[in-house]
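in:
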């Protein structure tokens, strides 16, 4: 048999990459749809028991838990996917990742250290809306509605503050001890940053591999509609939890 032309092999390779990318998004959707796992990225089980019993500085385990929380936190990952979806230059990815990191570091550290109380359901609902916002923006929604493009640098920093409160509520629920609190908080936050770098490296690599294919523009619409759907679903789930908690409080 005559080997397929180079252009045809590239097309087939790009198609396979897109299928893998779409499969990954669909798998995330399946996880989110299973409402029994809607809080799967919360700190639980042995991790929760360790955090609750930690008495004194223990930086390495807290850094590990921070990285684990980010890598398994699908709401954070969905938002990051939306943020970098159309970014081509590494310096732009770095800029937005830094703004997001700065935002969630401020509220994570301040929220726990100063014991700032926010409702976990409402914060997580806003995190869901951050996914909706970015997907809608990627679809050109704001330009269509108003003819103007919001400054996404401000938006990403602002949603970073919200995501940080989401992280803070997970730790606050475990009753951290004061002994070693700051050291453990900074270690956890450092782990979150490490996890974010790992997640971004994976997402950037996948997007770079498929962005220049002829399928990208059409598939991009589908992916962002899926992101918007998931964001609305996460928001609805959290608002339902908030309503139920108020009704039984």
């Amino acid at each position: 048999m005559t080997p397929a032309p180079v252009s045809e092999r590239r097309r087939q390779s790009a198609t396979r990459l897109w299928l893998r990318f779409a499969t990954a998004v669909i798998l995330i959707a399946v996880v989110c749809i299973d409402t029994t796992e809607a809080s799967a990225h919360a700190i639980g089980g042995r991790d929760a028991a360790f955090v609750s019993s930690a008495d004194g500085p223990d930086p390495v385990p807290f850094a590990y838990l921070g990285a684990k929380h980010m890598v398994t936190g699908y709401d954070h990952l969905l938002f990051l996917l939306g943020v970098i979806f159309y970014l081509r230059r590494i310096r732009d990815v770095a800029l937005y990742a830094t703004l997001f990191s700065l935002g969630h570091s401020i509220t994570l550290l301040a929220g726990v250290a100063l014991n700032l109380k926010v409702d976990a359901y409402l914060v997580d609902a806003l995190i869901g809306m951050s996914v909706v916002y970015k997907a809608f923006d990627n679809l050109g929604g704001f330009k269509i509605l108003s003819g103007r493009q919001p400054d996404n640098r401000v938006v990403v920093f602002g949603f970073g503050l919200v995501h940080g409160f989401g992280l803070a509520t997970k730790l606050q629920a475990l009753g951290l001890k004061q002994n070693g609190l700051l050291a453990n908080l900074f270690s956890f936050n450092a782990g979150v940053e490490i996890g974010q770098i790992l997640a971004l490296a994976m997402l950037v690599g996948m997007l770079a591999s498929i962005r220049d294919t002829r399928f990208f523009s059409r598939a991009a619409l589908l992916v962002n509609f899926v992101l918007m759907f998931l964001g609305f679903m996460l928001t609805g789930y959290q608002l339902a939890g908030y309503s139920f908690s108020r009704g039984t409080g």
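note: Residues 216-248 form the longest helix (33 residues).
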